Amino acid sequence: MTAQPRVLSGIQPTADSFHIGNILGALNQWVDLQAQADCFFAIVDLHAITVPHDPAVLHQRTLSSFAQLMAAGLDPSKSSLFVQSQVPEHAQLQWVLGCITGMGEASRMTQFKDKTAKEGSGSASVGLFTYPILQAADILLYAADEVPVGEDQRQHLELSRDLAERFNSRFGQTFVVPKTRVMKGVAKILDLQDPTAKMSKSLPGGCAFLLDDPKVTTKKIKSAVTDSETEIRYDLDTKPGVSNLLTILAAFTGDSVEKCERDLAGKGYGDLKSRTAEAVADYAQGFAARTNELLADRAELERLMAAGAQKAQAVAAPMLAKVYERVGFVRA
């Protein structure tokens, strides 16, 4: 019997609520992965402090994010669900990996370039600069075989692969060199106001948050940008707004895009928006209820967090010990 591959992924606690792009673009796939792989899913709060933040807000968002992952269908009995900062081996391994990463190599990371293009690198923290090295530590610490990543993170995974191979070459076989996991059937959800851009919490006007008041979400969807035509047809090139709504409707109803097109044949954009808003609201209502139920029992939520951190540390600690031995540290 072939052993299941080990998969790792994470999400930052940088918003009060997940949005529909998070659910349809990643989290639904994470839920499915639980039956196919040995999964480690993290709330990556260490990454969240690379930019200025409010400690109280981060604290609450971390709790809320953990609850929302469970509300989305992640099961702590099926996967290792944990908070990154509760497993100190992440930061410890980052230091070792940072010591074998070249300055030029780190400076070529496009995300750092993009984030500092407007404000200048002088305003950026060292943490933001070394963010990809911490991400490499996240992955290599768990001997992850595969990492599901979006296009914007592909370069960071390549750095993880390079550092794993470099460490293995210098100090002996230690790390698994991770592969990209291609997620089939992943829906790319676009901004409701700018359907040429990916939905993002950084553009709240066109982002539908699952914990928002349903009236707010419904208004956003009914105000979504479409086009000057009248036909409801999936055509991402010429009708991105309509295509985005069809994608969202299909995902939340479980129907195919083609079936949604047939059902709406001869109807107007108002019908498309109303049906999409209703489908999203139906899902969001249950999602919010489950999230709030989990948050209401703070002791149980923190118990689950602690249990998840223990499961993660049971894998992370032996790996870090092996790394420390390889580089020549004298252990206590």
Oligomeric organization of the protein chains: single chain
Instruction: Please tell me how large the radius of gyration is.
Output: 21 Å
The portion of residues forming beta strands comes to: 5-15%
Largest sheet strand order: 1-2-3
Which overall shape is indicated by the principal axes computed on the Cα atoms?
Answer: globular
- What is the N-to-C order of secondary-structure elements (H for helix, E for strand)? EHEHHEHHHHHEHEHHHHH
- Whole-Å distance between the termini? 39 Å
Average the pLDDT over all residues and give the rounded result: 92
Provide keyphrases for this structure.
332 residues, mainly alpha, three-stranded parallel sheet, two-stranded parallel sheet, 5 strands, 53% helix, 7% strand, globular
Topology readout:
Blueprint: E1 6-11, H1 20-33, E2 38-43, H2 45-48, H3 55-71, E3 80-83, H4 89-98, H5 103-107, H6 110-116, H7 126-129, H8 131-140, E4 146-148, H9 154-171, E5 179-181, H10 214-222, H11 240-253, H12 257-263, H13 269-296, H14 298-327
Parallel strand pairs: 1-2, 2-3, 4-5
Helix pairs in contact: 3-13, 4-8, 4-14, 8-9, 10-13, 11-12, 11-13
